[in-house]
Each structure stands twice: as C-alpha cells, then as structure tokens.
Design goal:
By secondary structure, the chain is of the alpha/beta class. Helices cover 33% and strands 26% of the residues. Strands 1-2-5-4-3-6-7-14-13 form a nine-stranded mixed beta sheet, with helices on both faces. It is globular, with a radius of gyration of 20 Å. Bound molecules: S-adenosyl-L-homocysteine and N,N-dimethyl-L-histidine.
C-alpha cells in the first residue's frame, strides 16, 4: 500500500523531494511526502468527512495497490465504455493532437495509472520525432514506478521523470522542456467537485506557457441507462472498487469497517450531471477509527458519498475552461459521440 501522500489537507509543499529510485539513467521516480508524514493529511481529511451529517470520503483513497488493480479491471468491463472510447479517439487522432499541440517535447500525464492509452500518444510523438520526456504523475507509488520503468524500456532515448504526489498539491514542481502537453485522461476531471475543479484548472492555466497545451478527457452526458450500467457492472467489479476504500481506511487508520455491511450505490443525478457513487450501510452500526480516536455511527440505509463522476457537453466545458482562463482549441469525439477529448491553451 502506498498512499504515500494522502495530504490533501496539507497547505505547504516545502518538504524535500525524495529521489527514491533511479533505475537506468533516463528514469527517475520522485516521491513527495507531506510535512507531517504520509498519513497526516489523510487523517484530518477522513475525520472531517466522517464527522459531517452527510458523510463523504475523497476518491483519492481508492487507489492503493488493490484499488489500482480493480480500476484496471473496470477499464476492461463491457459496460465501462469511457476507456474504449477514449482509446478510439487517441488511435484516430493522435497525429492531429500532436500537431495541434505544437509537436510537444514533453508529455506530463496527471493521474497516469498504467498509462495504457498513453502509449498511443507517445507512439505518435516518437514517429514525428518530437518525443523527449514523459512525466507520469500519480498518487499511487506502485503503479507510477511500474509505468515509469515500462515506458522507459519501451521508448528508445526517452527521459521518464515519474512523480508520486497529489496532483492537487504538487503540480508546480514539474519542470521539463517545452512545448509541453499536460494531460488528464480517462475522465478523471469528472471526479472533482465543481469548486475543486475550478481551482485545479486555474492552476493548470498558470502553468501553461503560450506553446503548451492541456489535453483533457471528458465523459459526455448521455442516456441514464448507459451511464448507470457503466457504474453498476454485472460482474460487481465497480462495487468491489468502491468498497475497497473501506479496506484502505481499515489498514491505514486502524478502522474496523465491515466491508460486507455496506452496499455499492451508483445513480445518475440529472441536475448535477454526475453519477453519484456511494456506500450504503446495511445495518445500524458504529465504526471505530482507532488512529483518529473516533467512532462513526451509521444508521441502516445511510449513504456515504465516495465519488462523483461528472459528465460534460462541449458548450459547458468551453464555459468551464473560459472561467479558468483557458480556451478550447480542438475537440475530438469517438464514432458514437460518447466521450470527448479536448485541447486547450491559455486564453489570449
Ligand atoms: N489515466 C488513467 C487512470 C485513471 S484512474 C486512465 O485514463 O485510465 C485515476 C488515476 O488518478 C489513478 O491512477 C489514481 O491513482 C490517480 N489519482 C487520483 N487522485 C489523484 C490525486 N489527487 N493526485 C494524483 N493522482 C491521483
Ligand atoms: C477515474 N475515473 C475517471 C473513473 C470514473 O469513471 O469516474 C473512476 C471510476 N469509478 C467507478 N468506476 C470508475
């Protein structure tokens, strides 16, 4: 397990970079720890989330080693179309994206995970001869190390600078030659609350030089049945992914959640345009969280939000970009119009 930086409540980023491995010369993986230790932020954050009348946990805690593996399984489910559709767009449009993004030397990928689809973009960059550096940035240490090492071994002469950090805290640390593309794929922007998203996009705008581009994957609004099926798969993998966050709290904060005493709930919310993902308590129960010295009571039927997954339409996304000081330059969708990939630059 490595939520090495659960520090989303941490304000400062003064802690030193720990160069924790240097495999061949061209691969480094830096791990950024919050000042009070790996779990300092997580503890405060979970305490706050469990103390509210409507309990809520941050989706960043899903991604321990098992959570990352479960997400990989989700991407292969027949009902989970976003990965398939985004890959289709990348396969069809990688060269166009590369050219529209000024043939970038550096690809910085936030929430890179296994970077399975990213290879399509790296291939295009290599084929036009602009590929110099890949920076996978993810909160999960195991998967970032694995991805960094695999990409370095697959692309001749590439520099790989892995960064294990919370991309909401440590983005400003990234230094690499331009033109650069900062990518956030998979629809991960959908997991941000609206205010959090606005702050994040403003920081992206501040990071971009005139030649740099932001590449964003967004799942699109569509019929309820398709949306809900993607988050209620028949094999139960999404349910296991959702419940796994309780196992993370049990291990990291010495809690005693009974995973079988909670059921997975995922519903389309047409007002907020998001899938609301929750865990519903099956009984009246009191959960002890020893590391926080707290008890969290759950009533039978009580729901705790663990994630939202917002869906977009192009005009709404253009407004969101504009509010953050960004402007969309290019828009690509798959053949069924289920998923969107956009490029944006700093607004002129
Ligand atoms: N980009 C991949 C993976 C998406 S899953 C794809 O398109 O398939 C979301 C990824 O974001 C996970 O790998 C998770 O570990 C990472 N992540 C989630 N919250 C994060 C945060 N706050 N900071 C850094 N990485 C985060
Ligand atoms: C990572 N993120 C874009 C996924 C999504 O679709 O919102 C996470 C996920 N949650 C349940 N299934 C997939």
């Amino acid at each position: 397990m490595c939520i090495r930086n659960g520090g989303y409540a941490v304000e400062t980023i003064e802690n030193p970079i720990e160069p924790s491995s240097t495999t061949p010369d061209q691969v480094t993986v830096d791990v950024h720890l919050p000042p009070g230790g790996p779990l300092s932020g997580m503890a405060a954050d979970v305490r706050a989330g469990l103390s509210r009348p409507f309990k809520e946990l941050s989706p960043r805690y899903f991604y321990d080693e098992r959570g990352s593996q479960l997400f990989e399984q989700i991407t292969e489910l027949p009902e989970y179309y976003p990965t398939r559709c985004e890959r289709e767009i990348l396969v069809e449009q990688a060269m166009a994206i590369c050219s529209a993004a000024n043939n970038p030397a550096t690809l910085i990928e936030l929430g890179s995970g296994s970077a399975a689809k990213t290879r399509v973009l790296l291939d295009a960059m290599q084929s036009v001869g602009c590929l110099d550096t890949y920076v996978p940035v993810d909160i999960s240490e195991e998967i970032t190390r694995d991805t960094a090492e695999k990409v370095a071994s697959e692309y001749d002469g590439i520099n790989v600078r892995g960064l294990v950090c919370d991309f909401e805290l440590d983005l400003e640390r990234i230094e690499a030659g331009g033109p650069r593309v900062i990518a956030l794929l998979g629809g991960t922007i959908g997991n941000f609350a609206p205010q959090q998203r606005a702050g994040f996009l403003r920081r992206i705008a501040n990071l971009l030089d005139a030649d740099d581009r932001f590449l964003l994957g967004t799942d699109l609004v569509k019929d309820r049945a398709t949306l809900e099926a993607a988050y209620n798969d028949s094999a139960g993998v999404t349910a296991a992914f959702n419940r796994n966050v309780l196992a993370v709290l049990n291990r990291e904060l010495q809690a005693d959640f009974d995973l079988d005493a909670f059921e997975h709930v995922a519903r389309w919310d047409p007002e907020n345009l998001w899938i609301d993902i929750r865990l519903r308590s099956l009984t009246d129960q009191i959960v002890n969280v020893r590391a926080l010295d707290m008890q969290a009571p759950f009533a039978a039927g009580e729901e705790m939000r663990t994630e939202i997954s917002t869906k977009y339409a192009r005009p709404g996304l253009e407004s969101i970009y504009a509010e953050a000081g960004l402007e969309m330059t290019d828009w690509f969708t798959d053949s069924e119009g289920l998923f969107g990939l956009s490029l944006a630059r700093v607004a002129r």
